Amino acid sequence: MTNILLVTSSPRGEDSYSTQVARRFAVKLQDALPGSSLTTRDVNADPLPHLSEALVHAIRKPADNRTAEDLAALRHSDNLIAELQSADAVIIASGMINFGIPSALKSWVDHIARSGVTFQYGPDGVEGLLKGKKLYLVLAYGAVYAEGPWQAMDFQAPYLKSTLGFLGLTDVEVVTIEGVAYGPEMAEKAVAAADERIEALTAALRS
Ligand SMILES: Cc1cc2nc3c(=O)[nH]c(=O)nc-3n(C[C@H](O)[C@H](O)[C@H](O)COP(=O)(O)O)c2cc1C
Fold first, then answer.
1. Counting atoms of ligand 1 from 1, which one is nearest the CA of 94?
2. How far is the CA of 205 from the centre of ligand 1 (A)?
3. Residue 130 buriedness (CB in 10 A; 0-12 / 13-18 / 19+)
4. What is the domain count for the chain?
5. How far apart are CA 199 and CA 127, in angstroms?
6. Comparing C-alpha atoms, which of 41, 43, 42 is closest to residue 4?
7. pLDDT over 80 at 207, yes or no
8. pTM tops 0.90
9. Domain ranges, residue 10
10. What is the CATH number of the domain that holds 89?
11. Beta strands 89-95 and 134-140: pairing type?
12. What average pLDDT does range 147-174 have in this prediction?
């Protein structure tokens, strides 16, 4: 069975393009993979705490020495990592905020990146431990970053690809919805292009 995990993060609620496209994508993926399950997590609607002193302290402690307080501080991190570990396909929806990812999604990253659990240092350097999963990034942008003068200001796609790749999620496809701030016509075109792309990605799985 394939477990699909859908993580949405927009602070724009039902208006969010990344959420809308990613939800449609999850439905199509489920349809293309009979018997698959879908778990959803909205990190904006159900926000995670920022990293705290207690959490950093607990993360750094050897597992055998952890107190009840440490385990309580690790609760969110443990749950989120378990959710990721059991997923075969992960869809992450993110819309650019101030040139990067929404802060709610950054908090999620801060909870899932854990030395010894999702990555480790070995004789050959760093090894990501979330291997063998397919990652789909559904990314919305107000402006256009694929080419032109704004390209260097895209700290969304490179950040997510690098950080999640570091954790072992290296098999990645990116679906972009660009230029939505340039008016309704441009936004409509961007969404249509993204829908075409998710259709192509799911059709490839069916064949
Ligand atoms: C607070 C805020 C900051 C934003 N900052 C940027 C930005 O730096 N660059 C950009 O291209 N678009 C920016 N936008 C536009 C969003 O990227 C655009 O609305 C996108 O659709 C957001 O994703 P969503 O539709 O999934 O919420 C910003 C929007 C908001 C609400």
1. 26
2. 31
3. buried
4. 1
5. 33
6. 41
7. no
8. yes
9. 3-206
10. 3.40.50.360
11. parallel
12. 97
